[in-house]
Amino acid sequence: MNSNKPQAPEDIVRDEKAQLDFSQSMSYGDYLQLDAILGAQKPLSPDHNEMLFIIQHQTSELWMKLMLHELRAAIANVANDELGGAFKMLARVSRIMEQLVHAWDVLATMTPPEYSAIRPYLANSSGFQSAQYRCIEFALGNKNAAMLKPHAHRPDLLAQVQAAYQAPSLYDEALRLLARRGLAVPASHTQRDWTQGYVESDEVEQAWLVVYRDPKKYWDLYQLGEELTDLEDAFRLWRFRHVTTVERVIGFKRGTGGTGGVSYLRKMLDVVLFPEIWKLRTDL
């Protein structure tokens, strides 16, 4: 008898004693509710490529759901001086952003004629209207009251977006933490109307410079600064891949949501979320 003969697949499964009967217990698909998830793709056009477009955006929304879960918890941890947990969550958010960056690589396989075949079926729907993305932008400090309006027809979504709009951002809580640690952050940046856009401050930069000039003394605050840097770095890459993918697929046509498309997205590239964190690198 040849002892080196490979086992048959059926024998391997039998020997491993894998569970095969799920008539009375929860299966993988049951736990993940795969029937609902995999049944959520409803192409409106007859075109083969619409499935790519739908799945790319649905998976991005799933990643954004996890990102918001982590971001909200990280903001709460920073507010409670629990930086260890916040660092783990922020590192995870940055890795999620990397997944979202690479998602554009898949969408970029859609050519202009392929997109043109499905575009009429999209009507005015656009990623510009994503409630989760708007909550992420607000949590990162890019506040804009106009961005509440696309959700006015859905009170449940509007409540979520409005809550993010009215709450302190991640950076707001970071600055409040610096102030609690005795650094000279002005009251204008620790006690303000959180719905207003962030205004860069020389005094805030000086507070961060104290941290960066003595990282041993302020190690956890220094690490917080670098976590913020990683996060914005990843977010900038996502925005860049977004604009280049859109230009590759539709050129300079207007977006389905009514924006200028590429022209609008290029303006968003200039938005800086944590300005003093970047400026201090020149002034160190």
State the main characteristics.
single chain; 284 residues; mainly alpha
Structural overview:
By secondary structure, the chain is mostly helical. The protein is 62% helix and 0% strand.
Helices and strands, in N-to-C order? Answer: HHHHHHHHHHHHH
| Mean pLDDT, all residues | 93
Q: What is the terminal-to-terminal distance?
A: 74 Å
Strand content is under 5%
How many beta strands in the DSSP annotation? 0
Question: How are the SSEs ordered, and which strands pair?
Answer:
Blueprint: H1 9-16, H2 28-32, H3 34-38, H4 50-79, H5 83-107, H6 112-122, H7 131-139, H8 155-166, H9 170-180, H10 202-213, H11 219-250, H12 262-268, H13 275-283
Helix pairs in contact: 4-5, 4-7, 4-9, 5-11, 7-8, 10-13, 11-12
Give a quick rundown of the structure:
By secondary structure, this protein is mainly α. It has helices spanning 9-16, 28-32, 34-38, 50-79, 83-107, 112-122, 131-139, 155-166, 170-180, 202-213, 219-250, 262-268, 275-283.
